[in-house]
Design brief:
about 525 residues; alpha/beta; Metallo-beta-lactamase, Chain A; 10-stranded mixed β-sheet; 14 helices; about 25% helix; globular; disordered N terminus; binds zinc ion
Length: about 525
């Protein structure tokens, strides 16, 4: 269906459209008109009291009605494709995994397509696999901040890559150390100051590498690298990476593998030609528009800017692609309290194409859902209710953008983005209807659900062109084994190898095990225990 260019959504019946616009309009009718809080100013939406709701609480009808899409469809030369792999706030739910967005740009002017992964929260690997997105495409990960719901599945992306077609390093972009020192509420208190911690992306990558040592060695009887690839100097230049003069991207070392320095010429256990190399690209989080990636060959540029989320150091990203029909752009703020930088980044002469920003349900709705209630406060246990609301309010206060604040931000972006996508949001008919009402309070002309604003859900695909943005839901098999991608030519020998009869290097899959108690298919005396071919 078309979005951002008005008109009746294609592919929907008139009844569907009425139903959807009814969904969009419903919040107030149910609301019964709660008074806006004092001092909140004129024109604010009187939303509240969306519950109990007649909307579905356990379905997202809008998504079900979008046209289907086969994710194997090649990206067109002039297309920017945004695929949502994980879209909700913790706690994870079956319908939505934690945050991850996959962006592909077409072959464009230069004949070179490109792609990037934004965040990699828990549970998204199954969605990447089901979508048939090969490991080789998951080689550049842009992390907004190091919360588990944004990076947990990195361990899987890291370990899976070299077994498939990513035989070159995993590049992890993310904020550098925060340097934050908490002075304490009372400077005289003897246990303060508290911090700073080694909380940057580089340290994270070192720990990730060390943590997965057993995993990586266990699979090194297969080739995990290539014989030749770009040098760090070349990658820095090709990708326009933000390293100072004389500094280059380099794989993290493992200080626990102390024997390495004794036996090898350099002390890199994972060379730049190996898939188990993790290369951090630390970004100076305070820069407003700092370059993270600027690939002249593909026309893809990714910049970063600070956002406000639980602790200093969280960032949002802006992607710009110099496509054949003109530039296309996207912002992904990830998690943040309402703040000004995203407004600056999203405003300009030309409308931003896609604005992706987190949105939080109101604390009392969140508490209601967490406690399994049908209306806020509808419980005999007021103590538990008050404690839960206190907790959800605190989370909002430290970290997130409420629905109305989202509308306020949108009202300050000029010109308005072609399509706005709230994310990190538990979608269902009831939560979205309530949220749209809040946004409409600030942006009354935002239109129907799906026109200029649409909530993200897992496996939502946006095909972005200069003249249209088409929304889809990808249709995949829940039972697919996914893809390991095409095999890579010129593979390096495996690290655990042996020689065959002709003194060729071949994989040694049993080199790391103790076979004493093993039951072999065939005993030394020739008697057979089981078939050798797996059947
Ligand atoms: Zn977070
Ligand atoms: Zn989050």
């Amino acid at each position: 269906m078309n979005a951002g260019i008005g008109g009746k959504p294609a592919g929907l019946t008139r009844r569907d459209t009425l139903k959807l616009s009814g969904m969009a309009m419903g919040g107030l009718a149910l609301g019964g008109g709660q008074k806006a809080p004092q001092g909140s100013g004129k024109g604010l939406c009187e939303v509240g009291r969306c519950y109990p709701s007649s909307y579905k609480t356990e379905a997202y009808t809008y998504a079900e009605q979008l046209p289907e899409f086969d994710p194997r469809t090649p990206v067109e030369p002039n297309e920017m494709r945004i695929t949502f792999l994980g879209t909700t706030v913790p706690p994870a739910r079956r319908a939505q995994q934690m945050m991850s967005i996959f962006v592909q740009v077409g072959s464009g002017k230069t004949g070179h397509p490109d792609q990037a992964v934004f965040d990699c929260g828990s549970g998204v690997s199954a969605n990447y696999n089901a979508m048939g997105i090969g490991w080789g495409q998951m080689n550049k990960i842009f992390i907004s901040h190091l919360h588990g719901d944004h990076m947990s599945d990195l361990s899987y992306m890291y370990q899976g890559g070299p077994q498939g077609d990513r035989k070159t390093p995993l590049f992890v972009f993310g904020p550098g150390p925060s340097g934050f020192i908490w002075p304490g509420p009372d400077p005289e208190h003897p246990t303060y100051p508290y911090g700073p911690f080694d909380d940057g992306t580089k340290t994270f990558c070192e720990m990730l590498r060390a943590m997965l040592r057993w995993q990586s060695e266990g699979f090194c009887f297969q080739s995990t690298g290539v014989n030749a690839w770009h040098t760090p100097e070349e990658i820095k230049a090709l990708w326009g990476l933000p390293f100072e003069d004389g500094k280059y991207p380099e794989p993290v070392k493992d200080p626990r593998a102390q024997w390495v320095a004794r036996y090898r010429e350099d002390d890199y256990l994972d060379p730049f030609t190996d898939g188990y190399a993790v290369v951090p690209v630390e970004l100076q989080y305070e820069l407003k528009g700092g370059t993270a990636y600027n690939n002249q060959a593909t026309g893809l540029r990714i910049a970063h800017f600070p956002v406000i989320h639980t602790r200093v150091g969280a960032i949002g990203y802006k992607l710009e692609w110099d496509g054949p029909d003109g530039p296309l752009s996207m912002i992904y703020t990830s998690d943040t309290k309402p703040e000004k930088n995203c407004i600056l980044q999203a405003s300009g002469n030309e409308a931003l194409d896609v604005f992706i920003h987190e949105m939080a349900v109101p604390p009392e709705i969140w508490a209601m859902k967490l406690m399994g209630l049908t209306a806020p406060g509808a419980t005999d246990d007021q103590q538990a209710w008050n404690a839960t609301v206190r907790w959800t309010k605190d989370v909002q206060e430290s970290s997130h953008t409420p629905q109305g604040a989202f509308g306020h931000i949108l009202s300050r972006i000029t010109p308005r983005p072609r399509l706005t996508v709230p994310t990190h949001f538990p979608v269902s008919d009831d939560t979205v209807a309530c949220a749209l009402k809040s946004v409409q309070g600030h942006v009354p002309d935002i239109g129907r659900l799906g026109e200029q604003i649409t909530w993200s859900f897992d496996l939502m695909v946006l095909r972005v062109y200069k003249d249209r943005i088409v929304q889809h839901r990808a249709v995949v098999s829940d039972y697919s084994l996914g893809t390991y991608g095409a095999m890579v030519p010129d593979q390096a020998p495996p690290k655990y190898y042996k020689y065959d009869d002709r003194h060729n290097v071949v994989p040694n899959p049993t080199g790391q095990i103790d076979p004493t108690d093993e039951i072999r298919a065939t005993n030394p005396d020739g008697t057979v225990n089981y078939r050798d071919d797996g059947y």
